[in-house]
């Protein structure tokens, strides 16, 4: 391994551990995905909020639960999305203490843009794998994600 590869490959001796490799690849993949989403002015958590809102308005606290994001972080995310004109907060129709977040048409358009860049980013990042390996990897990740913690 030459010095130019030092940031691209895990350090020797650590690559034998699956957990370390998973962490290494996840960090690299996350950085790659974040750069792609930044090209349409979003972060991964922004996109998560927008996609959840496609099924209808949701109380801000519920968004936090669904995305496993601390409530103060969700406030910041919704503030940012509101400033971009992608969502809107409205008083809950039955609970005066709650605030609903609504997806705006511009937010729907941004989801479509994010889908395009996400697809391209995935093609780039997973290029070393065959299409069959990609599908298998995705299925295995989905299985791990669905497993009880």
Task: Tell me about this structure.
The protein has a three-stranded antiparallel β-sheet. It contains six helices and three strands, in the order ααβααββαα. About 15% of the residues are buried. It has helices at about 20-40, 45-55, 60-65, 70-85, 105-125, 130-145, and strands at about 60, 85-90, 100-105. By secondary structure, it is mostly helical. The model is unreliable at about 1-5 (pLDDT under 50). The chain is elongated and about 55 Å long.
Major sheet characteristics = 3 strands, antiparallel
Strand portion: 5-15%
**Which residues sit in consecutive blocks of at least 5 with pLDDT less than 50?**
1-5
**Major sheet: arrangement of strands:** 1-3-2
Overall geometry: elongated
The share of residues in helices is 55-70%
How many beta-strand runs? Answer: 3
How many helices in DSSP terms? Answer: 6
Order of helix and strand elements from N to C terminus: HHEHHEEHH
Average of the residue pLDDT scores: 91
Characteristics of this structure?
single chain, 149 residues, mainly alpha, three-stranded antiparallel beta sheet, elongated, disordered N terminus
Topology (elements, then pairings):
Elements: H1 18-38, H2 44-53, E1 58-59, H3 60-67, H4 71-83, E2 87-91, E3 99-103, H5 105-125, H6 131-146
Antiparallel strand pairs: 1-3, 2-3
Helix pairs in contact: 1-5, 3-4
Give me a quick take on this structure.
By secondary structure, the chain is mainly alpha-helical. The protein is 60% helix and 8% strand.
């Amino acid at each position: 391994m030459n010095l130019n590869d030092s940031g691209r490959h895990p350090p020797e001796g650590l690559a034998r551990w699956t957990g370390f490799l998973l962490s290494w690849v996840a960090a690299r993949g996350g950085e790659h995905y974040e750069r792609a989403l930044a090209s349409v002015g979003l972060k991964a958590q922004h996109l998560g909020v927008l996609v959840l809102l496609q099924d209808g308005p949701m109380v801000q606290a519920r968004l936090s639960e669904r995305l496993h994001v601390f409530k103060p972080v969700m406030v910041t995310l919704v503030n940012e999305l509101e400033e971009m004109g992608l969502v809107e907060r409205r008083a809950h129709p039955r609970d005066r203490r709650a605030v609903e977040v609504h997806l705006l048409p511009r937010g729907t358009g941004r989801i479509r843009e994010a889908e395009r860049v996400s697809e391209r980013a995935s093609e780039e990042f997973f290029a070393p794998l065959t299409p069959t390996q990609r599908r298998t990897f995705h299925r295995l990740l989905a299985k791990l994600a669905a497993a009880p913690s």
